[in-house]
Amino acid sequence: MPELTFKNLSKSFGSHVVIDAFNATIEDGEFLVLLGPSGCGKSTLLRMIAGLSEITSGELLFDGDRANDWHPRQRGVAFVFQSYALYPHMTVRANIAFPLVMDAFKKWYHLPIVNAVARRRLMKSPDIAARTENIARQLELDSLLDRRPASLSGGQRQRVALARALVRNPSLYLLDEPLSNLDAKLRTQMRSEISALHHKVGKTFVYVTHDQVEAMTMATRIIVMNKGEVQQIDTPEGIYNNPANTFVARFVGAPPMNLVPVTRKGRRLATSNAQAWNHDGELPDGERLIFGVRPEKLQFLAWGQGRMPAQVAVVERLGAETVIGCRLVSDEHGGTTNLVENDLVFVRISGNPRTKINEQCSLDYHAEDVVWFDAHTQTRIPVRAAAPALV
Ligand code: ADP
Ligand code: MG
Q1: The overall pTM is greater than 0.70
Q2: How remote is the CA of residue 169 from the centroid of ligand 2, in Å?
Q3: Which residues pair with 13 in a beta bridge?
């Protein structure tokens, strides 16, 4: 069960730098999620851990030992790919047992007939049968063992692919977007199954996804990547509550964190449409700031009741909750003109309010729920816990 350390790990394809000086440690037993948009280098990183892709520079350590040049087999990893390919002519049982059978009969690879006979005999070996049935039970495939892949649903096939990768009892699990081919309901179900598997086996998981919900629900820690660079390494709570920069703030959360560029004059915050209000908590230094607040931390109030006048632009009713997209408006202009750019500020409230589009409203917040960013660097500016309002 290795602890993985990356020291200035870099990867280039020709002159195209895909991973640039990646530094991180993945601890033993962690469920580490690599989260980032498509093309940011997640799969490349995973392939380097597995030994399927060469490291251009830097070091990869397994429990402190340099593993850059280790053969994939030496690393004891199970790799689950996004596009799983099952053998259509084999039963679920034979598909799952396949890696065990092949491990035992490597030397017959080049003799197809001997290989086929040996494989059939090995399938009956008590050890292989027991291990196959054990992993099948864990993934609730035991009643499907004698079926062929064509007669299974997408989710069941995905579970067979997982079982096949996991049957070897690896020390490190690498999963590359294993759920992206599934429909929403199955994805939710598989998320909890994979989390349960992690608890059961207690080994290190490195899970790649571009889906922030998967990251938030499954990870013990998340590494957020963009363009081959680490943006933040933190727990899901840390990433959500204290995003390191505006990229992370926008990438995690649906709808994402509201980011409003403001100019600070004393305690007053002004937006680009001349709307301004008094902030009642600690403020960071600097004049050009980005005011960040999560949609569930905003209060949605009647016109005139909150500090930020607004107008309803979008109402999304989700049943248990409603997401309302508002335009911040300038009260100087009667609240209907001079809208701030085209950005909407989203508020998330529970229940199903009667709100209508174009209705005038106002928004407000508690000072301690605001996250500040530097408008120039886009990085978070830490501010001490807000003191109560000084009036
Ligand atoms: P992700 O998994 O985050 O979507 P990848 O790691 O697959 O991203 O790819 C990162 C970047 O590396 C992409 O720009 C991709 O085009 C490039 N890339 C990946 N594999 C190769 C390769 N074999 N040759 C050249 N470029 C590659
Ligand atoms: Mg990928």
Answers
A1: yes
A2: 24
A3: 16
pLDDT digits (tens, 9 = 90+) for 334-356: 554 444 445 799 999 999 999 99
**What is the number of the ligand closest to the CA of 35?**
1
Site to substitute for ligand 1 among 44, 210, 227, most atoms within 8 A of C-beta:
44
Pick the ligand that lies closest to the CA of residue 18.
Answer: 1
195-230 pLDDT, tens digit each? 988 998 889 999 999 999 999 999 999 999 999 999
Tell me the H-state helices in the chain.
42-50, 92-104, 112-123, 126-138, 154-166, 184-201, 212-218, 236-241, 246-251
Tokens of residue 25, six digits = 């440690």
CA distance 82 to 158: 9
Give the residue whose CA is nearest to atom 5 of ligand 1: 41
User: For atom 20 of ligand 1, which residue has the closest CA?
Assistant: 44
E-strand spans in 239-303? 258-265, 268-270, 276-278, 288-293, 299-302
Q: Which residues pair with 293 in a beta bridge?
A: 258
If one residue of 10, 13, 35 were mutated to test the ligand 1 pocket, choosing by the most ligand atoms within 8 A of its CB, it would be: 13
Neighbour count for residue 216 (Cβ, 10 Å): 18
Enumerate residues lining ligand 1, CB below 6 A. Answer: 13, 16, 18, 36, 38-44
Taking the CA of residue 42 as reference, the ligand 1 atom at the shortest distance is: 3
Ligand at minimal distance from the CA of 38 is 1
CA distance 384 to 283: 9
Q: Which of 216, 204, 207, 129 is nearest to 172 (CA)?
A: 204
Distance CA 46, CA 387 (A): 45
Distance 216 CA to ligand 2 centre (A): 18
Q: Which domains does the chain have, with CATH numbers?
A: 4-247 (3.40.50.300), 257-381 (2.40.50.140)
